[in-house]
Specification:
Layout (H helix, E strand, L loop, with lengths): L8 E5 L7 H11 L2 E4 L7 H8 L5 E5 L13 H7 L5 E8 L8 H18 L3 E7 L2 H11 L6 E5 L5 H9 L3 E4 L1 H4 L4 H7 L5 E3 L7 E2 L2 E2 L5 H12 L3 H16 L5
Helix pairs in contact: 6-8, 9-10
Bound molecules: manganese (II) ion.
Length: 254
């Protein structure tokens, strides 16, 4: 794979949450970054699919974000209706942080239901949020995803090196962002993840770059920081990430 064959990968961002989201779709299309644009509600699916229709490098995820789950309300019927059209699922997952703990039982129910629906469908790629809920997230993945044709990418993984090893055994990939790489625990974490399971993300606009919400093109800094953490040169790191993506998506790697 030569320099011309590699490209940047932002495998978890929220293009529809930028004020100029139409422009963001156009820019992603022009700069050829492989983007997975996740949604937080199935109500956002149709508009995002429409915007991505002319952007072959932008994938759209069908999601129900754990942070927007409200007790007594469910968006699962719409999710289920749209699922046959969605190859990518997310943002989904669990959040036991202080602002969302009160909906945690419903989050778990929703997450498990989504995984069951995905099992019936098969061949989905899931981008999974897991804040203060890593043991539960891994247990749920082990029970409902491991051994199926569906694949999980853990977004902004915040567990221990031991949990990373466990996740890798379950077949998970990891999308790494710049905030994860700026922590003192980074070397141990990166060392615990098989290099063949690494991807990159921005989680824009929820992370910052150059004093403003990060854009998919800012993922270049993440690739540089990841190369340093892996003690690999930049081109070899880009090659590794593109090969990992091709393997995850079942497309042929060069
Ligand atoms: Mn996100």
């Amino acid at each position: 794979m030569s320099e011309n064959d590699t490209f940047l990968i932002d495998y978890h961002c929220h293009l529809d949450l930028y004020p100029d989201y139409q422009k963001q779709y156009e820019q992603c299309s022009q700069n050829k970054i492989a983007v997975l644009s996740v949604t937080t509600t199935p109500r956002a699916w149709a508009r995002n699919k429409e915007l991505a229709a002319n952007c072959p490098n932008v994938r759209v995820g069908l999601g129900i974000h754990p942070q927007i789950i409200e007790n007594g309300k469910t968006e699962l019927p719409l999710f289920e209706k749209l699922l046959p059209d969605a190859k990518y699922i997310g943002e989904i997952g669990l959040d036991a942080g202080p602002h969302h703990y009160k909906t945690y039982p419903q989050q778990r129910e929703t997450f498990e239901k989504i995984l069951r629906l995905c099992n019936c469908a098969g061949h989905k790629i899931l981008t999974v949020h897991s804040v203060r809920a890593m043991p539960d997230t891994l247990r749920t993945i082990e029970a409902h995803v491991a051994g199926t044709t569906n694949k999980v990418v853990l977004h902004w993984f915040s567990g221990t090196p031991g949990e990373a090893k466990k996740a890798a055994q379950l077949g998970c990939y990891f999308s790494i962002n710049i905030a994860m790489l700026n922590r003192p625990t980074t070397p141990a974490l990166i060392a615990s993840i098989p290099p063949t399971r690494l991807l990159t993300e921005t989680d824009g606009p929820f992370t910052m770059a150059h004093g403003r919400p990060a854009l998919p093109s800012d993922v270049s800094s993440t690739v540089e920081a990841l190369a340093a953490a892996l003690k690999m040169n930049l081109q070899a790191t880009k090659h590794l990430l593109c090969t990992n993506l091709a393997k995850l998506e079942g497309t042929k790697a060069k």
